[in-house]
Structure formats: C-alpha cells, structure tokens
C-alpha cells in the first residue's frame, strides 16, 4: 500500500494497521466465487507484505507483487520462501505511478488500499499507470476506504461517484459494491470504535477494447 512520496516504509518496521497477516476477505471472496472471468497474470499494486499476492498465487495464478517500500518487499519475499504456492510469484520494488520496471501486460491488476492514498491530480496519473499495465479486456480490482465510514481519522474517504469519474474514459464499470476493509489495531486506535474492519468499496473495472 506504499508509494515513494508517501513514506510508508517506516511503518513496516512494525506492523502497520493494514497488514492483517492474511488476505483481505473481500479480495479472497471475489476470487473464490469465480463470478468474474479473471485471467492472469496478476499484478498486485501496493502489495505490502504480500498476503493477497500469496493467496492469488496459491490459486494457481502467476503473480507479480510490487510496492515502493523496501521493507515490505523484503518481508513479502521471506513469506514466499516459506510457503508452497501453486503458481509462480515474484516481488519487486516499484513505483505504482510509473511502473518503469514492469513491461508485461496483465490480465488483472489488484489494488488493495492504494487508490485512497492519492490526491486528485496524482490519482489521474495512477489511473493512467493502471491503463498501461492491464491488457485489453483485462480487469482492475480495487478495495478502498469508503465515504460511508464516519469521522476523519485514517486515509481519505472515496465516494462511489469519485470511482466512476476516475474510470469514465476507456473503462467499463463492472461493479462497485459496499465492502469491509479489515485492519489490525495492534494496540493502536485505528478507528474510533476500535472495529476490526471499516467501510470500503470493492470495485471491479474492465479495460475497454480499443
């Protein structure tokens, strides 16, 4: 969930609230239901310590997890060495806004907790980066904070309209569903109610064929 300018690397010296030690339930359920014909390979942007990437690789996908945090990638690689997953998996340090070192096109791009860290201008750059990474007819899956979550703590809230606007050109909205983003408090007040999950959007968009 990191980008170079956001300085998340220090968070991985401990356990950040978004690192729950397992794949996000919303992501896991989406792929287990097989309701959308996802085809790999998969790019996991802002992969953190790699739990979503490892889950997807264990389902047989070829997965590349990237994050701007060297600490996160080091931890993700260490996890991969200890787990026997069915598919191929790799982790790299990359900037999600440029992806200069990523040359392949992907059938699916997964974003779990990255979209909501960007301001409006940076978000436009990010969506362009997504467009360069996903092949025609490929999908982008986004799990982000929702404006339905009360208060002002934590990352920026995203409205359904913002999601639709971000992907209005060259994309087809497949679904925007209410979801939950699971968090790991680790003694820290992540939300005022100390809930273990917060309001989120689970969004799937498809890259339009030119």
Detailed description of the structure:
The protein has 210 residues and is an alpha/beta fold. The chain has a single domain, classed as Vaccinia Virus protein VP39 (Rossmann fold, 3-Layer(aba) Sandwich). Helix content is 24%, strand content 27%. Helix 4 (120-133) links the parallel strand 4 (106-112) and strand 5 (134-145). The longest helix is centred in the middle third of the chain and has 14 residues, at 120-133. The two termini are 30 Å apart. 41% of the residues are buried.
CATH topology name, in short, is Rossmann fold
| Strand and helix order | HEHEHEEHEHEE
Number of domains: 1
The name of the CATH superfamily reads Vaccinia Virus protein VP39
CATH class: Alpha Beta
- Coarse shape: globular
For the CA atoms, what is the radius of gyration?
Answer: 16 Å
Strand segment tally: 7
Main sheet makeup = 7 strands, mixed
Give the termini distance in whole angstroms.
Answer: 30 Å
Strand content: 25-35%
Mean pLDDT: 87
Secondary-structure class: alpha/beta
| CATH architecture descriptor text | 3-Layer(aba) Sandwich
The parts where pLDDT drops under 50 for at least 5 residues are: 1-6
Q: Percent helix among the residues? A: 10-25%
Strand order of the largest sheet: 3-2-1-4-5-7-6
Number of helices: 5
């Amino acid at each position: 969930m990191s980008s170079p300018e956001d300085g998340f690397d220090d968070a991985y010296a401990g356990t950040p609230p978004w690192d729950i030690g397992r794949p996000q339930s919303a992501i896991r359920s989406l792929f287990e239901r097989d309701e959308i014909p996802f085809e790999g390979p998969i790019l996991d942007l802002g992969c953190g310590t790699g739990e979503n990437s490892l889950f997807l690789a264990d389902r047989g996908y070829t997965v590349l997890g990237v994050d701007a945090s060297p600490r996160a990638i080091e931890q993700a690689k260490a996890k991969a060495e200890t787990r026997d997953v069915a598919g191929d998996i790799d982790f790299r340090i990359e900037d999600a806004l440029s992806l200069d070192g990523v040359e392949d096109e992907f059938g699916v791009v997964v974003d779990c907790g990255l979209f909501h860290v960007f301001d409006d201008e940076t978000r436009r750059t990010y969506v362009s980066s997504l467009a360069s990474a996903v092949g025609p007819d490929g999908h982008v899956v986004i799990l982000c904070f929702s404006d339905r979550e009360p208060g002002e703590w934590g990352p920026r809230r995203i409205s359904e309209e913002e999601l639709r606007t971000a992907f209005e050109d060259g994309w087809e909205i497949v679904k925007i569903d209410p979801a939950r983003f699971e968090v790991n408090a680790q003694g820290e007040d992540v939300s005022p109610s100390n809930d273990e999950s917060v309001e989120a959007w689970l969004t799937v968009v498809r890259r339009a064929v030119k």
